[in-house]
Amino acid sequence: MATMSLPKIGRRALWFSPVVMVAAGYLTWLYWLKPRNATLVLVLGAVAAIFVMGYTSLIARRLRQRLDEVQIASHEFANSRGWTWGAMITVVLLMLPPVVDRLVDLANMLATGSRDGSSRVSVQLGLAFGFMLVVLMQGICVCVAGAFWWRRMGDTRERS
Amino acid sequence: MKNHIRVLRAGKDWSQAELADLVRVSRNSINAIENGRFDPSLPLAFRIAAAFGLSVEDVFDKTDV
User: Fold this and answer.
1) Range(s) of the domain holding residue B45
2) For residue B44, what is the nearest residue in chain A, using CA coordinates?
3) Which of A35, A111, A124, A144 has its CA 20 to 30 A from that of A66?
4) pTM for this one?
5) Residue in B closest to A68 by C-alpha
6) How close B7 gets to chain A, by Cα (Å)?
7) Which of B42, B63, B53 has its CA nearest to residue B14?
8) How many domains is chain A built from?
């Protein structure tokens, strides 16, 4: 396993700090702004989301420039397999009644305060949870596929 | 592709990390190449061979190709 030096961790934390600051700032302002101006909340949400997506892809591009060819091959393997496996696992999960029930209950609880009540907001939340589940499963599967790749590349302990 | 990196490295008394620094890749990448699990690109193969002061044919076994 590769180790990272402290200055390197610090530099990476510094790179990611704008994302955390924007997300934290938006969430903090949300509570104050929501009762006053719903349109502004929507606009700021869109701006924050576009910034986070754009900035993270910029960081990803910069990090990729520093990778060597074996690491790039590992990332390509992990991404291609992870995205497919993640989507497939989500489909399987959404076919399981207990999982669907929990997601519906959660959406209803957050939207109406009751597990049995349903509204337009609960449907929107349900869609958002479905999307989050896909992204989460794909993220987990990318990590698993990456670990699988390095395992296949052989024992990573050094032999002299 | 088979190679003689481990033997050559032992001859020079280099660790995988030292060779990795010389050819500007990660130690895990050297490990994968050394075990024959990953075939390096031509530029990387030349860099590895140059680090040992040898030709590519002396480091990598072409009977496997």
Assistant:
1) 5-55
2) A69
3) A144
4) 0.65
5) B25
6) 8
7) B53
8) 2
Q: Are residues A45 and A82 in the same domain?
A: no
Query: Which one of A69, A156, A160 has the shortest CB-CB distance to B28?
Result: A156
Closest CA to B27 of A41, A70, A7: A70
Q: What is the ipTM of this complex?
A: 0.77
**Residue B17's pLDDT band (cuts 50, 70, 90):** very high
CA distance A146 to A107: 33
- Measured between beta carbons, which residues in chain B are less than 8 angstroms from residue A150? 28, 32
| C-alpha–C-alpha distance, residues A139 and A144, integer Å | 9
Q: How many domains does chain B have?
A: 1
Task: Please state the rounded mean pLDDT for residues B17-41.
Answer: 92
Note whether residue B60 is domain-resident. Answer: no
Is residue B65 a part of any domain in this protein? no
What chain A residue is nearest to B17 in terms of C-alpha separation? A158
Residue at which a domain ends, from A40, A66, A92? A66
